[in-house]
Write a structure and sequence with these properties.
With 315 residues, the chain is an alpha/beta fold. The protein has three domains: 134 residues, Rossmann fold (3-Layer(aba) Sandwich), CATH 3.40.50.300; 49 residues, no CATH class; 94 residues. The chain is built from 16 helices and nine strands. Helix 1 packs across helix 2.
């Protein structure tokens, strides 16, 4: 059931997200709190795998709201994002009208009167009954509100941003044939970007900005503890220390939080008691996604493992 109450505090946001397994930094919790208080979307930027999409899922689950997701891609247009007409249904109704044309126009005394009657039927074909709502329009029509996730907005064309401006500023959209459709309850809007291209100032101006980077070590340990509760504290501290050292290397893709969680699950599955040179070498492909990154990391494994083990002794 949706929770209609406003978010009481930043601390309440931290607690609420944590109840869904999302360990948020103070900065993240503050952005979510302010977004609701001043009714502004959040534009979340940062590298892939740091929890941008998961934030939207956690907010929706915590608040008991439906989450509607619009996955962006090159060439995305209003027919896929906003609405399109039910052409098959329109065609069917056209055939029915054709079959009944004599009955419909039977009372028309003049050609002008007949055209007026047909014009009335033409308007029916472009009524709400024939509209197929897509994610943006669906979000505005939710009577209980929702979380609208516009995922990877940087993958869409720059022209697509113009379509979003009215929705992001006024929570409404104008459809030429129907007029203005306003939100029943303004949705909580979260946009994500991996910064593959620069976004327009008009879009950024309508949003709160939040950058999620790689978390500090203590926070990442808490995230692993939340998502992989079976892992021992010793191993958890060691693997996070190792990953933070790996991120200092010049790699094609730095291991993200999602890779940290996957690696923790793998180490638990392999019943590793602590981080060791052999288990790291055997599972490095879980942490790193490019062979060149694996090759660049291998010479440092012994040093990084030793450092992680020492940290545990003095931690």
């Amino acid at each position: 059931m949706a929770d209609p109450r406003p978010m009481a505090s930043i601390e309440a946001v931290e607690s609420g997200l944590a109840s869904q397994g999302y360990i948020a930094s103070r900065q993240i919790a503050t952005a979510v709190y302010l977004s609701q208080q001043i009714a502004k979307p959040i534009l979340v930027e940062g590298p892939a795998g740091v929890g941008k999409t998961e934030l939207a899922k956690a907010v929706a689950a915590w608040r008991g709201l439906k989450m509607i997701r619009l996955q962006c891609y090159e060439g995305l247009d209003e027919a896929k994002a906003l609405y399109e007409w039910k052409y098959a249904k329109q065609l069917l109704y056209t055939q029915i009208l054709k079959d009944k044309l004599g009955e419909v126009l039977g009372g028309a005394a003049t050609l002008h009167a007949a055209l007026d009657q047909l014009h009335d039927f033409g308007d029916v074909f472009f009524s709400k009954e024939f509209v197929e709502p897509r994610p943006l329009l669906q979000a505005l029509e939710q009577e209980a509100g929702c979380v609208l996730l516009i995922d990877e907005i940087d993958k869409s064309d720059a022209e697509f941003e113009s379509l979003l401006l009215e929705i992001l500023s006024d929570f409404q959209v104008t459809i030429p044939e129907l007029g203005t459709v306003s939100a029943v309850v303004p949705p909580t809007v979260i946009l994500t970007s991996n910064s593959e291209r620069n976004l327009g100032d008009a879009l950024k101006r309508r949003c709160l900005h939040l950058h999620i980077g790689f978390p500090e070590q203590k926070l990442e340990e808490r995230i692993v503890e939340s998502r992989v509760p079976a892992i021992a504290q010793v191993l958890r501290r060691q693997l996070v220390s190792f990953i933070h050292d790996v991120r200092t290397l010049d790699l094609k893709k730095q291991p993200s939080v999602s890779e940290t969680i996957d690696w923790a699950r793998v180490l638990v599955l392999l019943q590793a008691a602590e981080l060791g040179h052999d288990v790291v070498k055997d599972t490095l492909n879980v942490l790193l996604k490019y062979e060149s990154d694996v090759e660049a990391t291998l010479p440092h494994v012994t040093t990084f493992v030793a450092k992680a083990l020492r940290q545990n002794v003095f931690g």
